[in-house]
Specification:
The structure holds two protein chains of two kinds. By secondary structure, chain A is an alpha+beta fold. Chain A is built from 17 helices and 17 strands. In chain A, helix 14 runs parallel beside helix 17. Chain A is rod-shaped, with a radius of gyration of 73 Å. Chain A starts with a helix and ends with a strand. The mean pLDDT of chain A is about 85. By secondary structure, chain B is α/β, with parallel strands linked by helices. A five-stranded parallel sheet of chain B has the order 2-1-3-4-5, sandwiched between helices. Chain B is globular and about 40 Å long. The chains are: A alpha+beta, B alpha/beta. The interface between A and B is medium-sized, with 22 and 19 residues.
Chain lengths: ~700, ~150
Amino acid sequence: MSGITFRSRLAAALGTSLVILTFVGFLSYRRIREEETNQKWVEHTHSVMEQLDTVLLHGLEQQMYEGGSITTGNLSARERFRIVFRQQQRDISSLKELTADNAVQQQALSRLQSLVDAQRELLAGQTGSGETEASRATASAQALGQIRDQIQSMKGTEQSLLKVRLAAAARGSAQTKLVIVSGYAVALVLLVVAGMGILSEFAKRTGIAQRLQSAEERYHVLFDSNPLPLWVFNAKSLEILNVNGAAIAHYGYSREEFLRFKITDIRPLEDVPAVLESAAGASSEPQTSGPWRHRKKSGEIIYVEVTSHPLVYEGREARLVVAMDVTKRKQAEEALRRSEEIFRLLLSGVLDYSILMLDTEGYVVSWNSGAERIKGYQAEEIVGKHFSRFYPANEIRADKPAQNLQMAVEQGRFHEEGWRVRKDGTQFWADVVLTAVRDEEGYLRGFGKVTRDITERKRTQEKLARRSAELEAANKELEAFSYSVSHDLRAPLRAIDGFSQAILEDYADKLDDSGRNFLQRVIAATKRMGMLIDDLLNLSRYTRVDMRRENIELSNLAETVASELHSAEPSRQVAVVVAPGLRAQGDPQLMRVVLENLMANSWKFTSKTECARIEFGELDSAGGPAFYVRDNGAGFDMEYASRLFGAFQRLHDSSEFAGTGIGLATVQRIINRHGGRVWAEGQVGKGATIYFTI
Amino acid sequence: MDEKVILLVEDNPDDEQLTLRALKKNNIRNEVVVARDGVAALDYLHGVGEHAGRDLNFMPQVVLLDLKLPKIDGFEVLKRMRADDRTKLLPVVILTTSNEEQDRLKGYGLGANSFIRKPVEFDRFIEAVRQLGLYWLVLNEKAPPVRSV
């Protein structure tokens, strides 16, 4: 029960009692007045009766005087008679006044007057007339009897009137008594209740004061040893009144600093208005609020949840504050929020993948913009629908959606490529990964579904597969062709060469110089064609042969090739300089062909150079380290550099330097197969350099 | 008479002629039996068909075998020779236009003793035949004939 309610109830009880008592007092007063009135009426009735008796008495007295039976010393009977009669008239007059408000009695009084008048007339006329004494006495007695009857009747009327009035008064009095008694009873009850209320409230207030007193003592005991930062501040001035060790340790302010502070002094300036507002609205109940920002002495801002309890501290109204540092939790929440936001942004930003969540039954729970782009549904029209609608009709009939979910449940993950259906009914080739999503306890929470439209890739793959099948067929054909070339093309050549030779030998005497010269040319041409065929075969073979990659000691290989060149033509003086320790990854056989071709070229093109020199080395190029073979031979015109690597392309007359024009084409093929690049630099008469990377 | 016969298995008459000329040029005067396809070669070696009743104790000193042959190709001939006790140990020199790796592998795999590619230039061919004759007809001792005891 709050103080205000108690006070109003108390006021109501007391007020009601007061009203009742006032009312009862008023009733009592009115009752007394009524009693007084009744008394008057009784007296009035008595007066009327007395007067009436007096009238009768005076009537008797008149009769007596007239009869002469009574004699007085100084007045004659007649005189006495007149005095009595006047007295009687005064009696009747006063009766008239007394009963002025009563018409019945007035009427009766008029009759009495006439009766009295008749009696006096009778008595007075007796002297004038000569009637007998006996008849006069009878008439007089008769008149008096009538007067007495009239008076008796009037007394009866007056008495019954009095009876009626007294009865009414008695009734009123009984009601008044009831009201007074019950009024007093109610007022008494209310006063007793109010009194008890006052007593109990008093007891309660005494109890609260005692409890506050003991709470204060407990707080003192708990305060200093508490591991949580605590302080007490004045609820009005907000000054800090006490602070515990934990607060000092946690915030870094000294006790003295704390005790100089108001609670607003440990807050960032911009938070102060909110703090003041909160302090002003503080209730008498303990309340928890926050997180607030508090400032440590170091300037560091921490987030604090504050519970404040009201208490009386050294007689002042104060609040005890328990400060819980939730900075770490807040930071973790913030980090979580940020990571969730990033995750959400990531999901919604991904356009190339449809990423969605299904519930355990396969109904769509979430939808990203990638899904919208790929499948054509807006989130609001698809969320809550079953994911089977993405499958073609025949797969739905075959219960594939459910089977796929089941596989994801059993194996954790289900991956396939297959046709899926867009909103507009068109199909696309999808790469689908269904992942069973389980919570930490291992319960299935749903499925993650990531889908990518790889229709384009599938088409490319199919095209590529067709192309490689075609290519393989072409290769087979080429192989068969090469094989037949090596056999069938060479056989006739050998016959041409052989028989030309036979003619030259066996029929030399039958031919003139010119004839022999022609046959020499035939033989030279066949030889050349034989070389062309061999080189072509090699070119195609190096393109086809399976490649393996291993470490190659390029420097050693170059030395070997150089020594072969030397032994093939020991007469030539060529300085071959090989940089030591060069290595590369590649096919040893093919790289040997490369070095053979390049160095043989250099060997050939330096044949007319004095102090011929061939270098093999490595240098940095834009595309990484490049190897090179350099010579100081015939060189070439850079204008034709682009033609160097084409098959059958020759920059020198064959009479000058023999060759088929296939060597560099072969080199380029091999380097290309290694994923490298080959290029040339040269200058006519100054030499050439062929670079390659692998 | 212990003449060392050469069996030349060659379908191309030009090559046959040139081979014979090269042998002559090198003064190799041994008898040359020419078989113009694989079946003829096997008939001769196994004494059947055209060569039925031939003395099978007499076997060529060396077989010069071309690979591309009508009816049965050179590899098949080699395979059957090696499958037969009588010709299992005969020296066989594959003499062919091709030098495809697969052919060499297959040839040696089937038990060829040598693999020689016929050069286009006749000069070099003559030289090749000279060395071949010197080696197989003069230097090399063939395995003794398998005789029934």
